[in-house]
Amino acid sequence: MIMADISAPRDIVLLVDDSPEALGFLTEALEQSGFSVLIATSGASALAIVERITPDIILLDAVMPDMDGFETCGRLKASPAASQVPVVFMTGLTETEHVVRALDAGGVDYLTKPINIDELRARIRVHLTNARSAQSARVALDAAGRHLLAVHGDGRVRWSTPQATRLINAATGTDEGLETVAVEIGLWMREHTQRGGSDNSFTIRPGGQSGLHLAYLGAIGADEYLFRLTAENLLSDDEILRQHFALTHRESEVLLWIAKGKANRDIGEILGLSARTVTKHLEQIYVKLGVENRASAAVKATHVLNAV
């Protein structure tokens, strides 16, 4: 018998099975192994539980009345509360088509009955470790302020960093923006596959709002595809500088060329100005930016342009 360390946090296992005998056997074995066990006797009960409590892993019987395990898994993966929770199928079905169906539904593993407890414990440890690694990566991305979104092959959202969610909601003008964008991504994914993967970025303008540019970064896991999002920039660089620093039209043009490393004489030739006029504009630019030299002005301008 493996005794649990009562001082350590206990991982929560949601056990879904319509068989009282299986529930009793597995509950006792898992609790002795140090897990906290939640029990659901149907798919509907499992869905209700995850709306209140998020388990660390779900053990799911494939064959149940009314809603079978395959449908239950699909619904769990569509739920924000459980979409990232690993699901391990348990069943007496051993045909390849059943294994494939379980994995297609979102399961990460497939155990055949009768269940070997030692094997079950080992697989639970592996999937918990993998799930925590994935969660740590998402937290790191959140902390880095990255606008990243991962989807299934059909466009359904697997996860989104808070920054990406805020950007999407702002662009769509609704708090349900992820659903709108998911439809557009699904269409692009199908076309992308048909074209043989020749393009890796596209722009959408949901609901006639401001555009979102999505760059496809590639597959990062089984049925997990990563995109980077940026807001479509409809303003020219000099317009961005003009609005940000309250510059005149000519001052913003001069500042843009300063940021590109041009000397006063070059700027005069490009804009059709005398060197003296360029110098006068620079004096006003320094005042408005609160800097003392062209190098500092170039740095501030470049920072603003890169932030867009």
TrEMBL record:
InterPro entries membership: CheY-like_superfamily, Sig_transdc_resp-reg_C-effctor, Sig_transdc_resp-reg_receiver, Tscrpt_reg_LuxR_C, WalR-like, WH-like_DNA-bd_sf
Keyword annotations from UniProtKB, A to Z: DNA-binding, Phosphoprotein
Keyword DNA-binding (UniProt): yes
Protein's GO biological process: phosphorelay signal transduction system; regulation of DNA-templated transcription
4-aspartylphosphate modified-residue sites: D61
Residue span, Response regulatory domain: 12-128
HTH luxR-type domain location: 240-305
SMART domains: HTH_LUXR, REC
Name the record gives this protein: LuxR family two component transcriptional regulator
